[in-house]
Amino acid sequence: xxxxxxxxxxxxxxxxxxxxxxxxxxxxxxxxxxxxxxxxxxxxxxxxxxxxxxxxxxxxxxxxxxxxxxxxxxxxxxxxxxxxxxxxxxxxxxxxxxxxxxxxxxxxxxxxxxxxxxxxxxxxxxxxxxxxxxxxxxxxxxxxxxxxxxxxxxxxxxxxxxxxxxxxxxxxxxxxxxxxxxx
Length: 183
Description:
Layout: H1 2-8, E1 14-15, E2 21-25, E3 35-39, E4 46-49, E5 71-74, E6 78-85, H2 94-117, E7 129-137, E8 163-167, E9 171-174
Parallel strand pairs: 3-9, 6-7, 7-8
Antiparallel strand pairs: 1-4, 2-3, 4-5, 5-6
């Protein structure tokens, strides 16, 4: 099933993984959170770097439809939508992240449609469990929150209820941590 994705998606969308680690890179020169390592993935898992996908020639972009999250890590069971932010206080970015997750869902639905209609194969993404994760730069000193905090009790199974993870640069995150109900 995932081999079909490897065979039809552009090379600049699929990123390689090595030694059961997905290396997520932020290429923005101003980013302070540049590398995150997702560990214990399977060799068959696929890492999609959707910043390279283009949809801005179709829509005006007034509602976030031209945005996309940084990565989607997918396997035969789940699709993990991952956004990386260097900001230490991501609360003001939650609306933007939600838009990116929703627009990425649309891209995956489009890929599914192409697989089904053109390649006459079963859809892939619509059968997968979906998880939404915002990874952001950890604050060096614990601060008392003054703004609305993301819901930490949810299962991060919708764009509006993402899991937020505070990490340091070059952190290693076990894939099981991307499901908030597996803490």
